Amino acid sequence: MKRQLTVGLGIAVVALTIPLTSKLPVVANLFGTGWAIARSMQHPKLQLNLVGEKQVIGKDAQGKEVVSWKSENKLTVQPGDVLRYRLLAKNEGDRPIRNLTLNQPIPQGTVFILKSAKASAVTAQVTYSIDGGRTYSANPTVQVRLPNGKVENRPAPAEAYTHIRWDLPGSLPARTSVNAEYQVRVR
What structural domains and CATH numbers belong to the chain? Predict the structure, then answer.
């Protein structure tokens, strides 16, 4: 009897961990398809795609400066080069995704270019972290000690930025996408 109880608990533990790893077909085999279908409706299908591009400045036929972006598997970058990261979030499900938040770290060895973060969703609210992603603010500040001894809050320098977050209030409709992007300079 104890052996059967242990085996039964083992199956229950596996069944409880499977939804956490999104192995819904296995859960469907254990409990029936009705439960798996209900479970999959609760978890939206979101596809994320991150693309990094290098800024290339050239000249057109009239000698006017033209900015383009180069994306290849292996890009060589030098200090001072500007890179653009584009994040595409696509709702591949049949239901809207509510209150979507996209979060990106500033890559090591780069400095965020202030005011370069934007999103295709008009309602997106962009906030920034200067403490490794623990807190976010639309306008991060740092405390600076002045020569007279006073401490004053000032806008954080670009070098202090560690993460960018795009909050999309409301919902992202089914089968639609949103683009978010930002630029950095290689140190």
Answer: 1-43 (no CATH), 45-53+81-186 (2.60.40)
Distance CA 185, CA 187 (A): 6
115-167 pLDDT tens trace: 999 999 889 999 999 999 999 999 999 999 999 999 999 999 999 999 999 99
Report the distance separating Cα 128 and Cα 147, nearest Å. Answer: 28
CA distance 29 to 10: 16
Q: For residue 117, count CB atoms less than 10 angstroms from its CB and return exposed for 0-12, middle for 13-18, buried for 19 or more.
A: buried
CA quadruple 29, 35, 37, 39: dihedral, nearest 10: -110
pTM recorded for the entire structure: 0.74
In sequence order, what E strands does 92-176 have? 97-105, 110-112, 118-119, 125-129, 141-145, 151-155, 163-172
pLDDT single digits (tens) 29-57: 334 444 444 444 456 799 999 999 999 99
